[in-house]
Amino acid sequence: MAKQDSFIKIRGTLDGLTFYKSIDGHLIRRKGGVSRARIMNDPNFIRTRENIAEFGSTAHSGKLLRFAIGTMLHRAKDPRMSSRMLSVLSKVQKLDGVSARGQRSVKEGLLTVAGKSLLKGFDFNNRATFQSVFHSSYSLDSTTGVVTISDFVSLDHLTIPQGATHVSFRNAFLSLDFTSGEFDTKYSPAINKALDMNSSTITLTPAAVPGGTGLKLYLLLIEFFQEVNGVQYPLSNNEFNVLHLLDVV
After folding, report:
1. Residues 102 and 49: beta-carbon distance below 8 Å
2. What is the pLDDT, as a whole number, of residue 32?
3. What is the pLDDT of residue 40?
4. How many CB atoms within 10 Å of residue 126?
5. pLDDT, tens digit, for every residue of 44-65?
6. Which residues lie across from 147 on neighbouring strands?
7. Domain-by-domain residue ranges, the chain?
8. pLDDT recorded at residue 25
9. What's the pLDDT score for residue 217?
10. Of 3, 39, 128, 229, whose CB is crowded by the most CB atoms within 10 A?
11. Where residue 30 falls among pLDDT bands split at 50, 70, 90?
């Protein structure tokens, strides 16, 4: 794969080369390779078919997770979030120790302690990670999904982007079945605070405990705003917002 350096950018196929644009810029790759029909039918490509099946299954699991938290996701994500999640879930899938090769699943991988540990702590916006922004202790009640942040002082316990005047906290309690695709997501009301030296306790309580028997996931969203004439505006296209996966149970 090569980059186009010319000031004239080409898109399409020319003389066996494909010109296209990605988040990495204008790129070039050579067209060709083994035909899809051969890959899907030739016995020599059985390992490739197994890899394709597992890749597709993992990609579907990632899409399902993103869809289940869509209300929050559009407020805090980076351009490579989907590919980063796919990388993590691929590692989780490989921890499935009960399914045949080609049929390993994210769901089975997440039944292991190691699988849960891989997904726990995922930051949906790597431009503003939880550890780089939030510097306070908190507690999570895994039964109710309630998150409590005691003795919180915003100017002491946050890395605050320039121009921000307010911060908002919200959490989500999610039940997700990676096999059936069924999910139930419950959100807490947002708690908005001015950025100052006042101490308070923040309690984020989801509307209810989600139904279903799927895996339980707990997320925390931190958003920054700038107040102008009494109106709060999202800061810098949400670039500094945090969306963090607190735990997987």
Report:
1. yes
2. 61
3. 72
4. 14
5. 776 878 788 889 999 999 999 9
6. 140, 204
7. 1-32, 43-119, 130-248
8. 72
9. 98
10. 128
11. low
Euclidean distance between CA atoms 169 and 238, whole angstroms: 14
Q: What mean pLDDT do residues 14-32 have?
A: 66
Of all residues in the chain, what percent carry a pLDDT higher than 90? 75
Would residue 121 be called left, alpha or beta, if left means φ above 0 and alpha means ψ between -120 and 50 degrees?
Answer: left
Which residue, chain included where needed, has tokens 């799927």?
A: 214
Residue with tokens 């597709």: 56
**Fold topology of 130-248:** Immunoglobulin-like (2.60.40)
> Beta strand 215-228 with 231-234: parallel, antiparallel or unpaired?
antiparallel
What integer pLDDT is reported at residue 184 of this predicted model? 97
Give Cβ neighbours of residue 75 (< 8 Å, ≥ 6 apart).
Answer: 221, 223, 234, 238, 241, 243
Which residues, including other chains, have CB under 8 Å from residue 135's CB and lie 6 or more apart?
A: 156, 157, 158, 159
**Contact between residue 174 and residue 110 where contact means Cβ atoms under 8 Å apart:** no
Q: Tell me the CA end-to-end span of the chain in Å, nearest whole number.
A: 41
DSSP assignment letter at 236: G
How many angstroms from the chain centroid is the CA of residue 38? 35
The DSSP secondary-structure symbol of 24 reads T
Read off the pLDDT of residues 223-233 as tens digits, 9 standing for 90 and up: 999 999 999 99
The residue type of 117 is S
CB 150 within 8 A of CB 201: yes
- b/e map 48-72, b = 16+ CB within 10 Å: eeeeeebeebbbebbebbeebbeeb
Report angle CA 145, 150, 154 to the nearest 5 degrees: 110
- What pLDDT does residue 95 have? 97
